[in-house]
Amino acid sequence: MSCCESCKPKTKILAVIFDLDGTILDTERLTKRLLKEYLAKYGKEADMEREEKKRMGMTQKESAAAIVKDYALPLTPDQYIKEITPMYREKWLQAKPLPGANRLMKHLHKHGVPFALASNSLREYIDAKISLQKGWKEYFSVILGSDQVKSGKPSPDLFEEAAKRMGVTAAHSLVIEDSLVGVQAANAAKMKVVAVPSHSETDCYALADYVLHSLLEFQPEQWGLPPFDDWVDNALPIEPIHVSIVSVNGSVCEVIENGVSALPDQIFGVYFGWAKVDPHKRFKVVVSIGWDQCSCISKRKFHICIIDGNIDCISGQQTQLTLVGYIRGLNSKDITSMTVEVLEEYKSVANASMDLPMFVHHSCEPLLSEACALAD
């Protein structure tokens, strides 16, 4: 998280404008491998590093034209769109909200703060992407796609039109984005902007008023909005996060399936929950999840502390984590090491929280069904 005194808002925010893909909905991670599979049919190999950086925030037509040109496909951009869109539509229905997205939208709705959705996607694609997200269509005061304005991002048109329809000025609007073109569009619209970038989108750091690792770090009161009231002492109930890990000689890494992590980049911070080794073994855990910047290739870094045991309890075995609570974000020092005192504090918070109803409820996930049977 970063900010400075000059970044702090001088006026009260009256409305919020969200981007969609990669900001509040985890579509981009789900569809990452689709292009690779599609290009293979034409004997082409996808340059995934270029794709992650180059296409972020493009409109569909811009992206299609660039891909056809870059890979010399024997297609027109329209033919490419017609072929690949059904593949994307199937994946969109599997997309889940990113950490903190539902929480923030429900909070704004509860307090009567209008908010809009402004995406470079076509409007019909936006509707398809959010169709299975409960309440989303009703929550948004305005929904806009790039085909409903003159130009998509980085033009300010989408954000200016959204603010106009909500009846607020640019000075009283806050944009929440994940991409460089989105942050540039907010700057062009003269609006305040919070960036929640993926790990590959660090270019927007310098242009945003505030940078977060995830929306769980968002503090409404910093923008003149009502503060959250959902913390339980020092712990925040969250939508359960599921991930498989393996611990070998004290080093913990995720078990990756089909080349795609189960975790979006925005899973970043100190969490607590349950570690399940088999149907008869489960342990309370505190888990910090960050990014290791020390190696040449950035990789996700896990640190696990077993509350009611030690790391040997899961060593050498594939372990299922179900994380149900959030304690705080991380800084660079936290990622590489934590003091004994800090770990004990986190263990105390987690241990006290996990017997409370709002956290115990999540133990009734499929991974922990036998615990529920005992509780009943």
Automatic annotation (TrEMBL):
Pathway: Cofactor biosynthesis; FMN biosynthesis; FMN from riboflavin (ATP route): step 1/1. GO terms for biological process: glycerol biosynthetic process; riboflavin biosynthetic process. Residues 268-329 form the Riboflavin kinase domain. Keywords: ATP-binding, Flavoprotein, FMN, Nucleotide-binding, Transferase. Signal peptide: none annotated. Gene3D superfamilies: HAD superfamily/HAD-like (3.40.50.1000), Putative phosphatase, domain 2 (1.10.150.240), Riboflavin kinase-like (2.40.30.30). GO terms for molecular function: ATP binding; riboflavin kinase activity; sn-glycerol 3-phosphatase activity. The keyword Nucleotide-binding applies. Its EC number is 2.7.1.26. InterPro entries: HAD-like_sf, HAD-SF_hydro_IA, HAD_2, HAD_sf, PGP-like_dom2, Riboflavin_kinase_bac/euk, Riboflavin_kinase_dom_sf. This is riboflavin kinase. It comes from Lithocarpus litseifolius.
